[in-house]
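Worked example 3. Consider a protein that binds NAP.
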Amino acid sequence: LVLAVRPASVRELLQQIGKRDREITAVSLAAGIPLRQLRASLGSPVRWARAMPSPVCRIGRGLTAITFSSGFPQSLRAMVKKFFANVGTTLEIPEAKFDAFTVTYSSSHGYHALATLSKAAEQIGLDRKTALAAAAHALGEGVLYWREGDLSLPELLHEAATPGGIAATAMETMDKAGYLDMFNRSLKAGLARAKANAKLNSG
Ligand SMILES: NC(=O)c1ccc[n+]([C@@H]2O[C@H](COP(=O)([O-])OP(=O)(O)OC[C@H]3O[C@@H](n4cnc5c(N)ncnc54)[C@H](OP(=O)(O)O)[C@@H]3O)[C@@H](O)[C@H]2O)c1
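Given these inputs, the predicted complex is written out as structure tokens:
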């Protein structure tokens, strides 16, 4: 069973499915809905895992976090991991870190950064196509070089942003404007949203 409805629909759907009396392996993709709520819903023969995939799975480059209920058999753990490995990398993490992972790894961060950087580039005079190409290179190939090259992040930052140069000036301006604080606040807001999802399905 793969549960892939929106968090607000999980409770109703599980009520419709009802208690089960035979063993089932179930994987929930629903953001924020904890294993304890899932376990309580369909009865003890149902073994629950949670997975958090990404739409980037469509091109085989997804990243899927997986967490298992205690007692989930090893052979079935391997089966669930293999299922998601078909569409990218898998990462087993403790459930306590699931919401933090969910709010951090979303491909929306990439799209949002691309949309925002290219919009700002248009505002300083680039046409839309060139602005998107420049912003996509900055974000996409920058990360690719970090992943596939052998330089550390501090080394890459040092190489690309000569002290006192143009890139360093732009970066310092972002930091002074609260770049880290902005991420702190946005991730905390996402975490709060995930906790609200859990409340939707409790009681
Ligand atoms: N979007 C992401 O990037 C992403 C990433 C990781 C995890 N998730 C999780 O995946 C889940 C789905 O998200 P989504 O973005 O794919 O939402 P979505 O586009 O709204 O898709 C929800 C799907 O569930 C179906 N559905 C709703 N109620 C149902 C019911 N009672 N029985 C059977 N099917 C039902 C809907 O069918 P109809 O269209 O016919 O109503 C629709 O196909 C969420 O829990 C979310 O947290 C999403």
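Take a moment to read the result before moving on. The pocket of NAP is lined by residues 4-7, 9, 13, 29-31, 52-55 (CB under 6 Å). The first helix runs from residue 7 to 17.
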